[in-house]
Amino acid sequence: MTLLSRWTHRRAPAGPAAPDEPKRPLEPMSGVPLIFVAIAISVANFMQTLDLTIANVAVPTIAGDLGVAPDMGTWMLTSFATPLAITLPLTGWLAQRFGQVRLFRVSVALFVLTSILCGLAPNFESLLIFRAVQGAVSGPITALSQALLVAVFPAARRNVALSVWQTTTFVAPVLGPIAGGWITDNLSWPCIFYVNAPTGVIVMLILGRFLRGRDNPTRRLPVDVVGLVLLAATFGSLQLLLDRGQNLDWFSATPIRVLAVIAAVAFVALILWELTDAHPIVDLRLFARRDFTAGTIAVTVGFAVYYGALVLVPLWLQTQQGYTATWAGVATAPLGLAGIVIAPLIGRIQGKVDPRKLATVALLGWGTASFWRAGFNTDVTLGDIAANSLLMGAATAFFITPLVSLSIAGLPRERLPAASGLQNALRRLGTSIATSVAPTYFERRARAHNTWLVDRITPFNPATADWLNTLERRGMSAQAALESVNRSVDIQAHMLALNDFSFACLLLFGATLATVWMIRYRRS
Prior knowledge:
By secondary structure, the protein is mainly alpha-helical. The protein has three domains: 24-221, MFS general substrate transporter like domains (Growth Hormone, Chain: A); 222-278; 285-524, MFS general substrate transporter like domains (Growth Hormone, Chain: A). Helix content is 74%, strand content 2%. The chain has helices at 3-8, 31-50, 59-65, 70-73, 75-87, 91-98, 100-120, 124-152, 158-186, 191-194, 196-211, 225-245, 254-274, 290-320, 325-332, 334-349, 355-373, 382-396, 400-408, 416-454, 462-473, 478-516, and strands spanning 19-20, 24-25, 214-215, 218-219. It has a two-stranded antiparallel sheet. Strands 2-3 form a two-stranded parallel sheet. Helix 2 (31-50) packs across helix 9. Residues 1-22 have low confidence and may be disordered.
């Protein structure tokens, strides 16, 4: 017996908790009810995932309207992401206690309510409170959307369900900044929150019509207070560290060091406590399954690296290449469009193909796109950027569905919410790390390249002298010519930094590919 297996058998419960049986169990559906329920669940997941990025581009406008500095405005994003990171891994415990369907419907209702309150917020402080509550109540939506789709689809069509879920998960972050920018520019920033209301109401009506009285058996579980506190300390401090690290220059700042210590100590304590508790708030015993562990690592790392590029490329286009937010969105829009077209097809063929081969196609596609991007120069065209985004998006469709289906294969249905919640929590944590680390790496590599280039631009360099003379002959003063050269050097330094980042992505995708083939595949 392995050490982990021994730990998972300690402090076992004396006997099963008394279940509260619902009127009808949650069973696979068919026909029109299945179509409506699948659409409603997918739309709810899309709505919640969209909210992660739709407000990003509106931060300066919101900060200005509510009378706070733009740097303070970013707390609106932190206040949403931190509670979300805490409640995602709680989903499994909450679903056992209250039922998957009931928890999902309540989460959607509260998400709609808090969205309206965010739009009505009279000041910045109240907006932060409403966003924090919105993040907390939205955690179960993503995890349960995946679990519920698996539950309501017949076993033979489960891959189609996961493909639908994948499409909404990957497309929403791409469309979020585009939609948020358009709404902010043409309507008003409260509308980025109000759009959730009509959509959410329709979702609740459909679920009420077709899933009323249906749910999984519930159990009156005791509350793991210690585990809950340790979970909040771990994910909360880590999320704050990631959100504020770049602004505070990372570990040179005392608050960041303190948050890092809290996160590390709480994380170790959380593992030790949860593995020995009879009713853990987070089911870490899932990691005793090799397939779940390898699949979760692959999903987390692969999606994080993909998301890092998703964040960095538009940033580079706008800050260094002179693109507007709209045109940067146009250049990267194929990321989502390709996924919409291809993902449903993957669900049809997955049962006939080893899922590890499909994930390999995704990682090879991402690696090829990264290698291509590593060769970009400052004269790269909009068409090349869009084609590179199209390749990234097409590869994305082959990635998450095969890995999720492999990692949860063989799990009892009642453990799916816990597995989905934990896997999604780690995936979200991976994207938070990528969102924070990618721009920092980009800027630091740019400074290193800038220093290297500036050291070679001297008055004794004939090429430099010719460059300055050409600018002065065009009517520039000596000072203006030097400023133009400095700007050109800075652009080239950031181009080289993006090339470095892309090559690093290539290496990480290769490591993820090795992890994928650690997952066992049993043909059914």
